[in-house]
Write a structure and sequence with these properties.
This protein is an all-alpha fold. Helices cover about 35% and strands about 0% of the residues. The relative contact order is 0.12.
Length: about 70
């Protein structure tokens, strides 16, 4: 009878799955929308008089979005 607790062929896949899950969790947390990641935070129309859209200030998709760096 093989003792699974000391068998490398058992623990190696378990460790790889755990490491993959941790990596995916960290990646997802890093890419999550949050402070400084909404379109309105960088939009030149993000002002009360310039943008009257209901999504403001947390828009993820906006057809009128213009980067504050753009000239026109």
């Amino acid at each position: 009878m093989v003792n699974l607790e000391t068998e490398l062929s058992y623990w190696l896949p378990v460790g790889l799955v755990a490491a993959s899950a941790a990596s995916l969790t960290l990646f997802s947390a890093w890419r999550r929308r949050g402070n400084g990641r909404y379109l309105c935070d960088d939009c030149r129309f993000n002002a009360d008089g310039d943008c009257l859209k209901a999504e403001r200030p947390r828009a993820l998709i906006c057809t009128s979005y213009r980067s504050a760096d753009e000239k026109n």
